[in-house]
Amino acid sequence: MIELKDVSKSFTLHNQGSAVIPVMEGASLKVAPGECVALTGASGAGKSTLMRVIYGNYLAASGQVLVGGLDVAKAEPREILALRRETLGYVSQFLRVVPRVPTLEVVAEPLLAVGCEKQAALDKAAELLKRLNIPERLWTLSPTTFSGGEQQRVNIARGFAHEYPAMLLDEPTASLDAQNRETVLSLIKEAKERGAAIVGIFHDVDARERVCDREVNVSEFTPGVAA
Amino acid sequence: MTPLLQVKGIEKRYGARIGCTDVGFDLYRGEVMGIVGESGSGKSTLLNCLAGHLEPDAGQVVFDTRADGPVDTVTMSEPERRMLSRTDWAFVHQHARDGLRMSVSAGGNIGERLMAVGDRHYGDIRDKAIDWLGRVEIEAARVDDRPTAFSGGMQQRLQIARNLVTGPRLVFMDEPTGGLDVSVQARLLDLLRGLVREMGLSAIIVTHDLAVVRLLADRLMVMKDGHVVEAGLTDQVLDDPQHAYTQLLVSSVLQV
Fold this sequence. Notes:
- The structure holds two protein chains of two kinds.
- Chain A is built from seven helices and nine strands; from the N terminus they run βββαββαβαααβαβαβ.
- By secondary structure, chain A is α/β, with parallel strands linked by helices.
- In chain A, β1 (2-13) and β2 form a beta hairpin.
- The longest helix of chain A is centred in the last third of the chain and has 16 residues, at 178-193.
- In chain B, 38% of the residues lie in helices and 25% in strands.
- Chain B is built from ten helices and ten strands.
- Chain B has a six-stranded mixed beta sheet, with helices on both faces.
- The chains are: A alpha/beta, B alpha/beta.
- Chain A binds chain B through residues 11-15, 52, 56-59, 77-78, 80-81, 96, 98-101, 112-113, and chain B through 28, 31, 186-187, 189-190, 193, 197, 214-215, 218-219, 232-233, 235-236, 239-240, 242-244, 247-248, 251.
């Protein structure tokens, strides 16, 4: 479902003396449907960078990034948009929303984007918010004023609303209490059971061991360290 | 799938100076494209060339019309282009005053565009006008007031209602949130996002506000000195800019 072949990435800082910073080299990875792979490595090793390359948020310098048969490294913007709408979900650490939009609609939006009927989308959103213990009185408010943990849970609800065949999870259990952490872990397990291919970053070792089938250490892809 | 709009090699010169040059892209149904750049970068010139307000010196703007399929709007006859700009196209000006008739009531502003496409029944027109006032969050009681009595944000929303009432497929927007205070901006962004999704609109938005494009646009084009220096997915261009100018632009945004 997700396959990386010899991917490299570097940043060129044109306004800072044109410094070229190579951050990744020879990254290869393969994730099958129903499998969850954890990215590990020290802070700065390139876990988030790798994830952003898969999502098409960062442009790969070379190599192939195949998600559901589409090479994200070379695809047209509209192909990537369609991929993100239908196939590839991403739960980032930050919630980015249009101000003023109620939480319930923020969560339902990915479903509406794939043409789900409005009431069904809102019902599904309500179910997820309930599971993640967001009090019902907050559903009509914009999440921009919520606490960090609440925003994180809204973000997770939004990420899991549509059943994406491939998912990227950036620290989904960070800043959550024990009960909500359990809910998130069971959401991940359910996603795996329905056949989703998942790549995740988990600093929480226990969570990683419970949901992940394999680990890939991204330090192996860091240029200069391996040599 | 045929693109809704195919732009090829657009160039506009003001004497020896370049307005914009060698601009080309395809826009598909439901896509929102942002054009950013500093003032004088040619973004408004480009938008006016695309919308038929300025005649480009070279290039094609091919629009997929409902009746005849793809047609080059640059070489189209003036009456045909006017018809297009009243039906399938809409243009939202930065200053609502440029897009509204200030001496005509709010309802009249909306109704005028309906009459231009052949609606004649007064009751129907008034009902539609009131419906659209509601959609842009203006009270129905204000239908007979003139836009001169409206605040800037309300005028801008009225302009949007006037433009969208005929169900266009492509909307051109020139700094739609410019000059509005931030709370009104947020409301307008929310409104535009909803309308784009519900109506399956395609839009081209010119702005210098990177936060606006991040929330509204799927794709982004960055212009400098009349040239497109970078284009791609909005979040990719903003988070991993490749061109020196885009890097400068992104790193110059003040953090709130």
